[in-house]
Amino acid sequence: MVRQRSAKPSSAGSIPAVASIPVPPAFNFESTVLSHGWYLLAPFRWSNAEKILYRPEILGGEAFHLKISGGGQAILPVLAQTGVAVPEKHLPELRKKITRMFQLDVDMSEFVAVARTSDDHVWVERAGFGRLLCGATLFEDVVKIITTTNTTWNQTKRMVQRIVEKCGRDGAFPTPKEVSHFTADDLQRDCRLGYRARSIHALATGIIDGSIDLDAISDPSQTTEELFKSYRTLPGIGPYGAAHLLAMDGRHDFIAVDSEFRRFVRDRYHKGRRVSDKTMLRRYDKWGKWKYLAYWSELWREYRDSAVL
DNA sequence: TTCCAGGGGTAGA
DNA sequence: TCTACCCATGGA
Known about the structure:
With 309 residues, this protein is an alpha+beta fold. It is built from 15 helices and five strands.
């Protein structure tokens, strides 16, 4: 990754230059933040009035409260309290995490080109739609996906908030080690995780004892099919979760079939009639490797039009 | 009470 | 490979 320092002054004016992170062409900060529900999950906090994403983060073992803004050709993460840059020694780690959070290493040009050929999807280019907001680490995203299964969105938000409060340090999302300090019963009782506590506990302890190797499991040299199978070996991750994790890698070959997908396709294309998953999925076959994003863009626009986002 | 929400794991056919 | 059942939680 390229490192650079920007000469752009902070909002305080007299504060020295801050480190900015360059973004790909046509990157849209706000659209990426609002791409799906992740910006509503702790430790993210989005200020719509300021168009700023706040997030506590541990860098080099030290806690920082980040204030992340976008615009122009860069993302600007600074310390929330002072507006100054994160100390130089932490910039490589910060860049790595920001790159994952905003999918800066994902090439969206092919999807945009395909979307131009569909009257219902031409808007995605103008909106800068395509990148999904992710957690700072794969562990964070796996935990969050587990908390979305078989429950309501409000319960998901509360589960994640409680995990951060109970296990995390200084408001940051906990590491596997921090989660593994607690028993599955502790997590279930105090974070109200239900049966999901066992999966999240198994994930954290597996990473710590070495039986789960997230780097190997997420090895990008695998084909998408191999990666899908690989993600499914994680505790609490089935077809829905694996498809979601692939999307966070920028791979959209698999649609995460859940109650929301079924509701959307049933209402939009089948006049509310019940149809099989296979029939629903067939509708998106023509999108090839962009199936999930094609579906998600349709749902995203429905959310936006109904002011859910 | 019963159902079900951005499902997953397992046993049995 | 497919189906049925169970799994905590909490709102409708």
